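2024-03-11 09:14:02 INFO worker-7 job=invfold-0412 stage=load source=structure_tokens
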């Protein structure tokens, strides 16, 4: 976990001295999935996250650990964004964007990382740091690295003096092309330092470490119209490309017949497409965009004229409505999830890409489909960025350790012959990597391949950086050290190592991410299968804290996972295996005595607040030392006093059954007042709504404490009690159940949904937004409100209602940059305070930099976590609404 550029320089010197290889890794979303090293892997995600927007958004300086989505969020307020727009923006980091010269759906070859780079700072393998933005950068390079400076100048002159090399470079780089080094820089730039900077783009960590880069940004279109055009055949679709490209369409995404058949299972697909029998049809997802609505409307006549001349299998329907457009894009982006999720367990999903001249797309696609049939890849699909002749295809392969993948090797050879015969490039935007490294020579020829080898020698004479990647002397390098996908448990076997889960995981900066947890479990399975039981035991012992104890099991990973994996559910099962009979019996007893236990917690917090802090700190510290840090929560002085006990509230004609959260009875409000349950009852009275709080409410819980700890016996006890109580007060009436803590809403939905499908459980925030807020009169509003949505509100789709109420009580509502799950997860953040400290760090920094009058969330443990992180009194949003309508 490198901390800064100086540490990277020190690693370079040690690696050179000991002849140890170094490989850099940030987001690592390459879906061919073969990243790795047998020596030292340097993770740049934790420390290298600086981001600075300058020149009114026209430039942005960013370090390699920042994700593309984070950069664009910072640029959005200026109406700008980065040029590259890969679909994996949630997870791909700037380090990867530069390393692979990423492009995407709309940027083409004009706005990729190479074309929009302004300057960069690089640590060379010698330890020399070069800042290409410095006025004397070229002179400094010549003085400190004379061999590199003179060598690049010589290569520049050599290439420019060879007409055949010049023509070949111009042709190959007129397409999207990430195969080999970016030797077009030898033609595009004059000074060696500028050539150096642009050679580093797309170099995949083989020439140096880019510690920061500055990009020129591009305008972010605010308006767009999107439609799915279905054609009778692939040939018809490709024939339409010319007129669509000439109409200046921002995106033209191709889907072949296999893709359409897969897409038909997606509920987002238009009904007309879902009903047709797909045989030879193909589709283009087309989008036009503009900076303002007038410009887009003015183009409508031209767009309609283009569409009128197309031979379509279904009538064209276009929409500018954001949610409808998102549904259409989901069809295209969902192909990966659909195919990868349905692959056979134990196989590896490989997503690869090529580029050919647009006129060659039809023939290339036809022959590629033939290769799939010939080699037995029947479930493969073809899609991609048709505007650029950039085709993606995905297939699944079974790699077995120690065995040469004969079928995959034969397919790759045929693929290489096909693409090169069509005048294309073997890699368009995913990076050369290991898979295509042995074929760089074949694509470029002797002269230019020798230039690339010389570039590698100039920068990295010892060959310590990412060996075997991009340049490979071994003709079978792409068939060695292949990553296998061991089967462990069905719920996580579908993992394709894409890393989409990592940016949203609250434990990513303290221990592990969901992807890493699954990887460790697979290594345990590999060790067991190979008979290395000592290693399996060692992994099981050492993984207890990072894999099991510090997972918040909050499920945020499932909200972004393309194949729908909730690693938290997997960890809950692992926790079940760790509990002994005594622990299970104790928590089962707690479920039957929950009212007494919650009051005991409240009394303990009241008592702790009246004595010197050293006393409760010492007591809980001693208990944690005796029983383990995953058993007894740590008391800290920022914990609130105990809350008020929950009381039943009968109602003659109830509009809803209200189940106040037990967390509010354990923890007082940040202001020391009655808390959210009292606010809710006052709001209901003002709105003329009757809420029934059943007896015995003090004994009820959503069962999340037992579920998250892996204690199913307690879940069963509490589930039966809750179901019986709700059934008794409902009396068969169709009235909803509401709760004031969104995580409890989620828990009650699970509990009651398993026992009575007729019960509707609604989060109180949504209930208030829909039924109470229209009947309330806001008397005063707060100025600026810092709002913290939660993982549960995100999963349940409650955030829109949360924003509605927040907008009613405040003049300005801000969800701070760096927002994410707080990691409290009930008591998890009190068992492991380091988890919440790491999870809230970025958001807390944004809150501290802002000027706010109020701070709110919708879950008491999350409010405590954010108060701890920021020193500001976070309260339930309904408490603020209570004050605003009083």
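2024-03-11 09:14:09 INFO worker-7 stage=emit residues=886
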């Amino acid at each position: 976990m490198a901390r800064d550029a100086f540490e990277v320089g020190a690693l370079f010197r040690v690696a050179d001295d000991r002849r140890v290889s170094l490989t850099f890794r940030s987001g690592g979303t390459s879906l061919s999935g073969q990243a790795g090293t047998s020596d030292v892997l340097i993770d740049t995600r934790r420390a290298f996250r600086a981001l600075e927007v300058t020149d009114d958004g026209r430039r942005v300086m960013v370090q390699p650990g920042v994700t593309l989505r984070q950069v664009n969020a910072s640029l959005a307020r200026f109406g700008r964004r980065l040029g590259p727009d890969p679909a994996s923006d949630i997870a791909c980091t700037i380090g990867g964007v530069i390393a692979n010269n990423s492009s995407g759906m709309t940027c083409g070859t004009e706005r990729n990382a190479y074309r929009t780079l302004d300057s960069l700072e690089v640590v060379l393998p010698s330890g020399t740091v070069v800042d290409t933005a410095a006025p004397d950068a070229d002179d400094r390079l010549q003085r400190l690295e004379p061999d590199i400076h003179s060598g690049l100048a010589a290569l520049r002159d050599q290439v420019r003096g060879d007409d055949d090399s010049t023509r070949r470079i111009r042709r190959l780089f007129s397409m999207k092309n990430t195969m080999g080094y970016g030797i077009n820089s030898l033609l595009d730039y004059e000074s060696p330092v500028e050539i150096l900077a642009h050679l580093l783009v797309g170099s995949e960590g083989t020439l140096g470490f880019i510690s920061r880069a500055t990009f020129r940004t591009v305008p972010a279109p605010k308006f767009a119209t999107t439609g799915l055009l279905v054609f009778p055949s692939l040939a018809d679709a490709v024939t339409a490309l010319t007129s669509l490209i000439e109409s200046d369409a921002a995106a033209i995404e191709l889907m072949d017949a296999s893709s359409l058949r897969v897409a038909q299972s997606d509920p987002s697909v238009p009904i007309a497409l879902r009903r047709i029998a797909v045989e030879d049809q193909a589709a283009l997802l087309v989008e036009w965009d503009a900076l303002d609505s007038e410009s887009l409307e003015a183009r409508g006549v031209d767009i309609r004229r283009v569409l009128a001349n197309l031979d379509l299998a279904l009538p064209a329907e276009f929409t500018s409505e954001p949610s409808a457009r998102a549904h259409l894009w989901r069809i295209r982006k969902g192909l990966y999830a659909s195919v990868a999720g349905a692959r056979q367990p134990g196989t590896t999903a490989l997503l690869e890409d090529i580029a050919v001249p647009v006129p060659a797309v039809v023939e290339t696609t036809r022959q590629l489909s033939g290769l799939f049939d010939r080699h037995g890849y029947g479930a493969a699909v073809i899609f991609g960025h048709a505007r650029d002749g950039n085709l993606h295809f995905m297939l699944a392969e079974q790699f077995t350790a120690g065995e040469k993948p004969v079928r995959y090797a034969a397919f790759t050879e045929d693929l290489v012959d096909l693409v090169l015969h069509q005048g294309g490039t073997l890699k368009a935007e995913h990076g050369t990597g290991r898979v295509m490294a042995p074929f760089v020579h074949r694509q470029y020829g002797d002269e230019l391949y020798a230039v690339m080898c010389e570039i590698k020698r100039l920068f990295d004479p010892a060959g310590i950086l990412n060996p075997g990647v991009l340049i490979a002397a071994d003709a079978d390098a792409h068939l060695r050290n292949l990553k296998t996908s061991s089967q462990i448990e069905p719920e996580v076997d579908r993992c394709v190592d894409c890393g989409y889960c990592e940016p949203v995981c609250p434990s990513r900066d303290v221990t592990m991410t969901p992807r890493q947890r699954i990887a460790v479990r697979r290594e345990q399975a590999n060790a067991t299968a190979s008979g290395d039981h000592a290693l399996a035991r060692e992994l099981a012992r050492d993984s207890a804290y990072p894999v099991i104890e510090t997972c918040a099991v909050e499920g945020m990973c499932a909200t972004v996972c393309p194949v729908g994996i909730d690693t938290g559910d997997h960890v809950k099962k692992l926790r079940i295996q760790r509990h002994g009979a005594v622990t299970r019996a104790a928590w089962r007893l707690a479920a039957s005595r929950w009212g007494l236990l919650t009051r005991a917690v409240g009394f303990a917090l009241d008592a702790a607040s009246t004595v010197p802090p050293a006393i409760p700190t010492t007591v809980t510290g001693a208990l944690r030392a005796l029983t383990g840090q995953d058993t007894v929560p740590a008391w800290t002085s920022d914990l609130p006093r105990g809350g008020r006990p929950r009381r039943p509230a009968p109602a003659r004609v109830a509009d809803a059954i209200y189940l106040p959260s037990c967390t509010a009875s354990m923890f007082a409000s940040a202001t020391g007042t009655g808390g959210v349950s009292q606010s809710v009852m006052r709001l209901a009275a003002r709105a003329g709504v009757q809420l029934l709080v059943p007896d015995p409410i003090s004994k009820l819980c959503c069962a999340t404490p037992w579920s998250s700890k892996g204690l199913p016996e307690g879940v069963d006890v509490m589930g039966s009690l809750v179901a019986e109580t709700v059934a008794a007060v409902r009396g068969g009436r169709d009235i909803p159940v509401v709760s004031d803590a969104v995580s409890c809403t989620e828990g009650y939905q699970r509990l009651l949904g398993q026992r009575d499908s007729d019960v509707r459980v609604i989060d109180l925030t949504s209930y208030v937004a829909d039924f109470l807020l229209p009947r309330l009169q806001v008397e005063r509003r707060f100025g600026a409100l810092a709002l913290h949505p939660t993982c549960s509100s995100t999963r349940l789709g409650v955030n829109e209602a949360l924003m509605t109420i927040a907008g009613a009580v405040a003049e300005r509502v801000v969800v701070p940059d760096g927002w994410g799950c707080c990691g409290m997860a009930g008591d998890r953040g009190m068992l492991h305070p380091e988890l919440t400290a790491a999870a809230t760090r970025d958001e807390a920094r944004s809150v501290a930099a802002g000027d706010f009058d109020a701070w709110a969330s919708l879950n008491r443990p999350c409010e405590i976590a954010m108060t701890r992180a920021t020193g500001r009194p976070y309260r339930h949003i309904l408490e603020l609404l209570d004050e605003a309508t009083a």
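2024-03-11 09:14:09 INFO worker-7 stage=report msg="The longest helix spans residues 322-341."
2024-03-11 09:14:10 INFO worker-7 job finished
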